[in-house]
Write a structure and sequence with these properties.
Pathway: Cofactor biosynthesis; thiamine diphosphate biosynthesis. The protein has two domains: 163 residues, VC0802-like, CATH 3.30.2130; 221 residues, HUPs (Rossmann fold, 3-Layer(aba) Sandwich), CATH 3.40.50.620. Helices cover 38% and strands 22% of the residues. It contains 13 helices and 16 strands. Strand 7 and strand 8 form a beta hairpin. Helix 3 crosses helix 4 and helix 8 crosses helix 9. The C terminus is likely disordered. The structure holds adenosine-5'-triphosphate (ATP) and magnesium ion.
Length: 400
């Protein structure tokens, strides 16, 4: 069976008035964007949902594209029938038989929009339900907790039937909650943090620190590839590549002890904040998760985080690694993240990085490094920015 229509449900039902209209307008624009390859679709918006007539397009292909639309809670393949009892009954039965797994219980819910249809919705529930029941031995009706619910809408010209409900990405439409800078390493966590931030409606630019030649060209390519994967959820993404070698080696030259990681990470945050402000971004997003490594204990996060005044958002802070990996697999970043190339954070690691750094001591150390402010400015100036465009096969990038 080939669906001829889709029903898309838009999320965040708590939104009202102007916010709701803005929300729906943004979801619609994103839907049209991911459906650019399907020019024959026809959209019919209604309150809280959109009917999309497929015009011959494949539902399977269209539904894969829909998983990239934030603000969409669920969607259903749907089928049209003429406004005639027998046609509706027959289609209902075919749809039930075509389900991937045969349910033990079901119910029919009819909504009669077209009041000139001869049977009201109660009567139709019985007429359609009864027809399906007599053809499906073993199936029973459960009006409270049915395994599947077959919905029938009696519209002005045709009936519309649907039974499957597929979960969408949820969240807020892209860009409706502002813009932020994602600190993107080559690891598993930060791309997931980026995806969760985008799902919450944040438009992202990404920043990556590399310490060439200590980190390889391949490590940089891996990050470009991760940004490409994330840019599939938006239109395109700016990636700022920061040459971090001078900062890192200069700190290491004068200090090699257990606060080294804290010092290096504070320098990263300082650079990230300067780039964020230059680009007009209102927050920094990172992939930190409480307790995961020495630099992610509460006191490390405290000493590192207070170096910037922009809000730092850490979507993974309370999540377990397993939960993070599950999302990484779902959004397609996991296979890229586990490629072996080094991240600059793993360079010059002291034998036992501090899990409980002292802010006063750290500040005093920084004060003694009078070369640091200029090296930080220089890193910002020398940052290279590339625009990552998503395409199914390969990112197309061009240098600014
Ligand atoms: P990830 O898997 O994201 O690398 P992690 O668990 O390895 O995270 P850290 O290496 O301590 O943790 O990094 C914490 C966060 O700092 C990262 O999630 C990322 O947001 C940021 N970060 C680390 N290294 C870099 C880098 N080279 N460039 C940009 N951001 C980085
Ligand atoms: Mg890392």
């Amino acid at each position: 069976m080939k669906p001829d229509c889709m029903i898309l449900r838009l999320g965040e039902l708590t939104l009202k008035g102007r916010n709701r209209r803005r929300f729906e307008k943004s979801v619609m624009s994103q839907i049209r964007h991911v459906f650019a390859a399907f020019p024959d679709l026809r959209y019919i918006p209604e309150y809280g949902r959109v009917y999309v007539e497929l015009g011959g397009a494949s539902f399977v292909e269209a539904s894969a594209a829909l998983q990239k639309v934030f603000g969409l809670t669920s969607f259903s393949p749907a089928y049209h029938a003429p406004l005639e009892l027998e046609a509706i009954q027959e289609l209902a039965l075919q749809m039930m038989k075509a389900l991937p797994k045969q349910p033990a219980t079901f119910k029919v819910s009819v909504r009669r929009v077209n009041k000139s249809f001869p049977y009201d919705s109660q009567k139709m529930n019985v007429l359609v339900g009864g027809y399906v029941l007599q053809a499906c031995p073993g199936l029973t009706v459960d009006v409270h907790h049915p395994e599947v619910e077959l919905r029938v809408e009696l519209r002005e010209e045709r009936a519309l039937l649907y039974v499957e409900v597929i979960e969408g990405a949820g969240g807020f439409p892209l860009g409706t909650n502002g813009k932020a800078l994602l600190m993107l390493s080559g690891g598993i966590d930060s791309p997931v943090a980026g995806w969760l931030a985008m799902r919450k409606g944040l438009e992202l630019e990404a920043i990556h620190f590399h310490s060439y030649p200590y980190t390889s060209e391949r490590a940089k390519e891996k990050v470009i590839e991760l940004a490409r994967q994330l840019s599939g959820y938006t239109h395109s993404m700016k990636l700022h590549l920061v040459p971090f070698t001078d900062v890192q080696t200069s700190i290491h030259r004068v200090y090699q002890d257990n606060l080294l990681v804290t010092l290096i990470r504070r320098a990263m945050y300082r650079i990230a904040e300067k780039v964020a402000e230059r680009e007009g971004l209102d927050a920094i997003v990172t992939g930190e998760s409480l307790g995961q490594v020495a630099s992610q204990t509460l006191s490390s996060l405290n000493v590192i985080g207070r170096v910037v005044s922009l809000p730092t958002l850490q979507p993974l802070i309370m999540m377990d690694k397993q939960e993070i990996i599950r999302i990484a697999e779902k959004i397609g970043t996991f296979p890229i993240s586990i490629l072996p190339y080094e991240d600059c954070c793993s360079l010059f690691l002291p034998p036992s990085p501090s899990t409980n750094p002292n802010l006063r001591v750290v500040e005093k150390l920084e004060h003694s490094m009078d070369f640091l402010p200029e090296l930080i400015e220089q890193a910002v100036r020398q940052t290279e920015t590339i625009q990552i465009m998503f395409s199914e096969n390969k990112a197309t990038q061009h240098l600014f």
